[in-house]
Specification:
single chain; 244 residues; alpha/beta; eight-stranded parallel barrel; 10 helices; 8 strands; globular; binds 2-phosphoglycolic acid
């Protein structure tokens, strides 16, 4: 089965860049594309959906976040999962470390996970430790606490979990393949022990690029990758997808 490749564009891009990059990606791509997900900034998702539909492409769309409130309401500045679904998403990144640093607490993330599951959006739930926790060997207990939020979700269904060590994001530092394998297996064991009814796809994210992706995807437990900076370089991103 193809591994899942998620492009997290963060706060980057423009209409022009999305037009250009999506068309180049679609013409470069040898993969079946159904395993490739683009998380563009929310304002561009509907535009990207139009391109994907007009090209009959199979790739999917994600939001980088969603409101903990669903539907409509007096929530200035918020974007509900319903609105994002209307624009064409299938997935939503929830709990990225950059959102956690902007104030998303575990309680807020539980509500966002509930909102996503309630609407049939597949969450890409991100967890990851700081360099201090890694160096003091406390990373597994910290990751365990982040995973425990899942137990408070009302109706947990299949989801994607992304292990993104904070110290690897945008730094060109990546854990060893053994370190990645250890954490991915830890997450998979946690899910099968606590939620035997669901299946979780577990990704690695943090400084993934065309030069290291093959080794990472060759770690048998790894189900795919979440790619930040390298997803903005369309030829490099196409090369990454062609490894999946
Ligand atoms: P990076 O970002 O690939 O630029 O390290 C990954 C992420 O933050 O999702």
């Amino acid at each position: 089965m193809s591994k899942l490749i998620v492009a997290n564009w963060k706060m980057n891009g423009s209409l022009n860049k999305i037009n250009n990059d999506l068309r180049i990606y679609l013409s470069n791509s040898n993969s079946n594309q159904a395993n490739v997900v683009f998380a563009f900034p929310a304002v561009y998702i509907a535009h990207a959906r139009n391109i994907i539909e007009s090209e009959s492409a199979k790739c999917k769309l994600a939001s980088q976040d969603l409101s903990m409130h669903s539907g409509n309401g007096a929530c200035t500045g918020e974007i509900s999962g319903n609105m994002l679904l209307d624009c064409g998403i299938s997935y939503s990144i929830i709990g990225h470390s950059e959102r956690r640093m902007s104030g998303d607490t575990n309680e807020i993330l539980i509500q966002k996970l509930n909102a996503a599951f309630g609407l049939g959006i597949i969450p890409i739930y991100c967890i990851g430790e700081s360099i201090e926790l890694r160096e003091s060997q406390q990373y597994l207990s910290f990751l365990h606490k982040q995973l425990e939020s899942l137990a408070k979700v009302a109706d947990i269904k299949g989801l994607v979990i992304a292990y993104e060590p904070i110290w690897a994001i945008g730094t060109s530092l990546i854990p060893t393949m053994g370190q990645i394998k250890e954490v991915i297996l830890y997450i998979k064991n946690y899910v099968s022990d606590n939620f035997p009814q669901i299946s979780a796809t577990v990704l690695y994210g943090g400084s993934v690029n065309a030069a290291n992706v093959r080794d990472i995807l060759n770690v048998p437990a790894v189900d795919g990758v979440l790619v930040g900076g390298a997803s903005l370089k369309v030829d490099e991103f196409s090369a990454i997808c062609n490894e999946a």
